[in-house]
Amino acid sequence: MKFSGDQIVAAVVATSFAAGLNVYATVATLGLLARAGVLALPPALGILASWWVIGVSGALFAIEFFADKIPAFDLVWNTLHTFIRVPVAALLAYRATSALSPWEQVAATAAGGLIAFAAHGGKTAARAAVTASPEPFSNAALSLGEDGLAIFLTWFSTQHPFWAAGIVGFLLVIIVLMARWILRALRTLFREAEDLLTGNPQS
């Protein structure tokens, strides 16, 4: 499937949100879809269809699949991935919109990074809320849901980019409405992750 300019922007919105949830799953899914002939990647993103990119992102997804489901450790994992998911999402948006005008490309890049940050913030806030639960199942279930949503949004954006962008728009409204709670949870997350890394847990 080959996209028009508007469809590319809509797909960028959806994949940016997906990358904010799980960047490795997003990259691997895009590559596999391109390999299967379902998606015609923009030339600037052609490297995603190479087997080594698919293999590396798939391996990292496998690591994250388990790491992200371990209570407490997932706090450190998600904190560190603040500096991976957002920049990669912005880079994907930049490369995907290379056929647009320079100002449109810059705007798409900024939007991609901000959308990924919002998705990442919502994810980590929810994770911080359930990590305190004494049982491990809610944490694992939440992580599975995030993985599934990232893969679904990536695939759905290649079939129905405007509908996928609409879903993301709805999710972003929810995140904005919960912004204060999310920021508070993110501060707690960074503080707890720092304590775990330094070996000085708070009493």
Strand fraction band? under 5%
Q: Over the alpha carbons, how many angstroms does the gyration radius reach?
A: 17 Å
Give the class from helix and strand content and strand pairing. mainly alpha
Mean pLDDT: 87
SS summary, helix count: 9
**Could you describe the largest sheet, including whether it forms a barrel?**
none
Number of strands: 0
Query: Percentage of helical residues?
Result: over 70%
Order of helices and strands: HHHHHHHHH
| Net shape | globular
Q: How many separate domains? A: 1
CA distance, first residue to last residue: 55 Å
Q: What is the subunit arrangement here?
A: single chain
Keywords:
203 residues, single chain, globular
What does this structure look like?
With 203 residues, this protein is mainly alpha-helical. It contains nine helices and no strands. It has helices at 5-21, 23-35, 51-67, 73-80, 82-96, 102-131, 137-159, 161-177, 179-198. The longest helix has 30 residues, at 102-131. The chain is globular. The model has no long low-confidence stretch (mean pLDDT 87).
How would you summarize this macromolecular structure in one to three sentences?
This protein is mostly helical.
